[in-house]
Amino acid sequence: NITDQGGGKIACLSTESHVILNRRSKIDKKMLTALDHRNLQVVYQPQMDIATGETTVYEALVRWQDEELGYIMPDELIPIAEENGHIHAIGAFVIEEAAKMAVTLSNKKHDAIISVNTSVREFNNSQMHEKLTNILEKTKCPSNKIQLEITEKFALQAEQEHSIVLQMKKLQEDGIQFTLDDFGTGYASFRYMQSLPISKVKIDKVFIQSLLTMPKNKKLVEGMILFSKTMGFYVVAEGVESEEQFELLKEMGVDAVQGYYIGAPVTAEEIFQNL
Ligand code: C2E
Ligand code: MG
Ligand code: MG
Ligand code: MG
Fold first, then answer.
1. EAL domain spans which residues (predicted)?
2. pLDDT for 129-158, tens place per residue?
3. How much is the pTM?
């Protein structure tokens, strides 16, 4: 396959990259309709607080199932949405679902915080604070029932754009906590961990998954926990898949665990059934 890229440049694409490009462009084109028709779904994964043994947090994770394209997981969906700008609408959809979920759980006498992943683009033009405030008002969800997860890529950007930090601080004043997700995988800077209004860190699953097999990794996780606790953060370990990992992490002093061992992401209905 030959594509003319203009400027006299000719690129050869393998059949495989053609398939990927084709899928990408279909995802791009179908996204708005999927949003309009509410074909997107949110699943929830429990997070267990070690001290109480209770599920105190559920993480909201977006899903999209399309007749033709099958499951489109967030790692595929989100980067495309960030590019075409639909990330704002997707974010609003997920936050609204999360807020409704928090209210329903509370009505069922099960208080929990719903944790929502955010992209830094959603904070452009001071949009996030307004968006969240409107949704919380509309759904009658108390602001302390929603928390936001940011990545290290986000934190790096926030350091450069003051308006992002201002919004984060305003949200924090409203009672919304921030979690630094995928801790340890990105451009970890100790500086922003001090300057941004973050109260929790989530150690990335790559470190948890090699905890028992790589002695050096165990040392690394010990160091991450010690550092985070010294800084006053609530420490979460994600990707916990076995009892051995769970017991070790408990011993190492993490505050909460999340992963298939505790529970996989499931629909709201499934959560209600098992309350
Ligand atoms: P994340 O926030 O770090 O979420 C954890 C991912 O690991 C989820 O994948 C979850 O299903 C998976 N996971 C949970 N427990 C285990 C385990 O024990 N073992 C293993 N191997 N995996 C586990 P998912 O749902 O595919 O999401 C991938 C990423 O996409 C998320 O990583 C998050 O950064 C992003 N994402 C998901 N939903 C949204 C959203 O609504 N908005 C934005 N901006 N990003 C989202
Ligand atoms: Mg997350
Ligand atoms: Mg993570
Ligand atoms: Mg991740």
1. 24-275
2. 999 999 999 999 999 999 999 988 888 888
3. 0.94
